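We emphasize that the prediction below concerns an isolated chain of 165 residues; any contacts that depend on oligomerization or on bound cofactors are therefore not represented. The input was used exactly as deposited, without trimming of termini.
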Amino acid sequence: MEQHEDQAAASSKSVEIAVAVIILLFGAVVVFDSWRLGITWGDEGPKSGYFPFYIGLMICFSSLVTLFRASRSGNEESFVSRGQLKLVMSVLVPTTVYIGFIAFLGIYVASIIYIAFFMWWLGKYPWIKIVPVALGVNVALFLMFEIWFKVPLPKGPLETAFGLS
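Result of the prediction step, given as a token string:
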């Protein structure tokens, strides 16, 4: 089992190629949208897309160079092991679910669930410690943002039922 955890989940070459492709797509979106806005000079100076267009071209060019170099390299060393990737995913997946829950439950209820889940699952804390910490952190956040700073955060059905939205 230990040996399986040390196996490579991805090589440095494959990660470099994937990142280069993602950045190339980002640069292409910048170039396309800048073209839509106008990349020429108008009567009063450059149009809205002039500078972003050239920045997007530089991003595309740089990512193409990186993509070319990565695809020709023989760098097959491990970027991340399966065990390391498993640890990262054990945080990334629940955090992604938490972000999705914010839209439906509001930030406070979603945060209570998120904190409680991590304390229980990864920290192995007893519920006698989980409940006060999860509730206390969110009460502090509510007081700080909603009362003191007057910054409304996303609310869900529970906050609406209590008239806090």
